[in-house]
Amino acid sequence: MADLIPVRLDDVAFGYDPSKRILEKVNLTVRPGQIVALMGGSGCGKTTILRLIGGTVPASAGTVSVFGEDVGVMNADALRRMRSRVGMLFQFGALFTDLSVFDNVAFPLRECTNLGERMIRDLVLMKLQAVGLRGASTLMPHQLSGGMARRVALARGIALDPRLMLFDEPFTGLDPISLATIGRLVRELNDALGASSIIVTHDVQESLQIVDYLYFIAGGRVVAEGTPDGVRASEQPFVRQFVRGEIEGVVPFHQQAADYRSELLAGAR
Amino acid sequence: MPVASPPPKPDVPGPVRARVEGLGEWALLKLERLGFAARFFLAILRFSGLGIRRFGLVMREIHFAGVLSLVIIGVSGLFVGMVLGLQGYETLVRYGSAEALGTLVALSLVRELGPVVSALLFASRAGSAMTAEIGLMKATEQLAAMEMMAVEPLARVVAPRFWGGVISMPLLAAIFSACGILGGYLIGVVTIGLDAGAYWSQMQAAVDFRDDVLNGVIKSFVFGVAVTWIAVFEGYDAAPTAEGVSRATTRTVVTSALVILALDVLLTALMFRGT
Ligand SMILES: Nc1ncnc2c1ncn2[C@@H]1O[C@H](COP(=O)(O)OP(=O)(O)OP(=O)(O)O)[C@@H](O)[C@H]1O
Ligand SMILES: [Mg+2]
Questions:
Q1: In chain A, whose CA is at the least distance from the CA of B145?
Q2: CA atoms within 13 A on the CB side of A156
Q3: Do residues A195 and A237 share a domain?
Q4: Residues A264 and A254 in one domain
Q5: Is any atom of ligand 1 closer than 6 Å to the C-beta of A47?
Q6: Residue A92 in domain
Q7: Which residue is closest in CA terms to ligand 1's atom 30?
Q8: With a 6 A CB cut-off, is A255 part of the ligand 1 pocket?
Q9: Complex confidence, ipTM
Q10: CA A240, A244, A247, A252: dihedral to nearest 10 degrees?
């Protein structure tokens, strides 16, 4: 089990709408114990890749395997078993709005384990302590700031001590101190649990410090990959533009559209 | 011999043709959605185990759908009963049988108005709330998050709400009828001054348990299943946006009302054929 490849995507293609593919051909591998960063422009399909790994959407071509098993052919039972070993932090938190912070973090423990309430209470407080929000355990989700909600979601995502953690933008909305703390926490959790992680992030500098490997996605493919050192030294135009945040370069800022001038003029007529 | 040429295409003008095609497409879409709703219903039944094992989940929904609807149901029942008392007295007194008022009020409520009006109120009070809640949970990815935690949303969120509604509906209808009978009493006996003994004894003599009460309960059970099914389905099927959820909520109220009234015709025709 320990040496199974946690995540592997082989030539994966996908589109929500069959006529418009978002992912053309993605190949990536997460090795045991690794933290892998997924980077790419907004809307390039990073969240979609996490959904494919979680099995909530099916790949239209290629195979997605998690712990050596093909997600595409899993039945409901196998899928449930796989998901109970995977923790996910959703991009917008997805906290249960009718449950308090404490109950949100306790939710996976209550639903997926047979632990007693005393034990659950201790575990929940430990997870909340780890994200610095033990003092907020009685609040309701609507009373939290964006960054706090994200940290609660993080605590909930790691409640079951997953073997594989998927973090969708864990750093957005955090102040620099929380950001560095959470970054370190992700690294420590990963190593302490012997787990593997995928982090979707736009925070190049932070991720260069904590991850083992980076993938850059654009146009539905992996356009660059490498270790943090390799990425820092890279002369590839895409990587350079991304790491330094340059506006001019190979990555277009605009969604594909008709010619700007002619579209404006068409409205005037 | 030359091969027979293909028959000439019927000469349908463009716009008419487009309209007919549009109609067909619309019908197909509706039919597909109906099929989806039917499969959804079966899925709810299949995933009901959790709610039975942890009955607290269903109790919570009975609280939200049932207990919190008590005030509107009780007050409306009282008003409807009072109107029945006034109108019924007006009519009965012409035939010199004003003492049959108790019978009239009770039968109208138990057989017809109790189940129907309380179901209509239930759809707009509890059904719409259910749709909005489930729709919002979908829009904010709470259902997806549950799925990723290996928890089936149908079992944890949808089925308990469904059973909570189905259990609440007949009870609410009974409370509605009881309040209505009280309303009729307030008008007939307290205000108009009919004999209290006549009001109650005539009622007791005329209302049959199996034919009237039981059939009324069956009606409200059927309405409960229909309304709650519509409510949870619309929520689960809502487009995951603010607009999608608000449309779904409206659809719940409108569809429920139509379905309740249509089912009522059907059930009444089956149950009370001149017996
Ligand atoms: N549920 C959905 N249905 C249809 N299209 C979708 C859906 N979710 C995302 N998309 C489309 O798929 C594309 C990729 O979306 P995705 O959410 O994976 O992007 P992302 O890389 O996570 O972007 P961001 O960094 O902004 O979160 C987008 O163009 C989006 O319009
Ligand atoms: Mg995203």
A1: A94
A2: 32
A3: yes
A4: yes
A5: yes
A6: no
A7: A43
A8: no
A9: 0.82
A10: 40
Q: Are residues A152 and A176 in the same domain?
A: no
Q: What is the pLDDT of residue A250?
A: 59
Give yes or no for residue A44 CB within 6 A of ligand 1: yes
Tell me if A197 sits within 8 A of A166, measured CB to CB: yes
Report the alpha-carbon distance of residue B149 to residue A112 in Å, rounded: 8
Q: What is the pLDDT of residues A113-142, one digit of tens each?
A: 888 899 999 999 998 998 888 888 899 999
* Of A89, A75, A223, residue with least CA distance to A151: A89
CATH at residue A258? 3.40.50.300
A91 part of a folded domain: no
Under 8 Å between Cβ of B141 and A92: yes
When computed from its CA atoms, the radius of gyration of chain A, rounded to whole angstroms, is: 20
Instruction: Please name which of A162, A161, A181 lies closest in space to residue A170, comparing C-alpha atoms.
Output: A181
Which stretch of DSSP H or E encloses residue A70? strand A69-70
Q: Which residues contact A173 (CB under 8 A, 6 or more apart)?
A: A145, A146, A147, A150
Question: Cβ distance B163 to B58 under 8 Å?
Answer: yes
Q: What is the largest CA-CA distance in chain B?
A: 97
- The one-digit pLDDT tens for each residue of chain B (275 residues) are 455 566 655 566 678 888 898 999 999 999 999 999 999 999 999 998 887 888 988 999 999 999 999 999 999 999 999 999 999 999 999 998 888 999 999 999 999 999 999 999 999 999 999 999 999 999 999 999 999 888 899 999 999 999 999 999 999 999 999 999 999 999 999 999 899 998 999 999 988 888 889 999 999 999 999 999 999 999 999 999 999 999 999 999 999 999 999 999 999 999 877 55
Using the beta-carbon criterion (under 8 Å), do B141 and A94 form an inter-chain contact? yes
Same domain, A245 and A205: yes
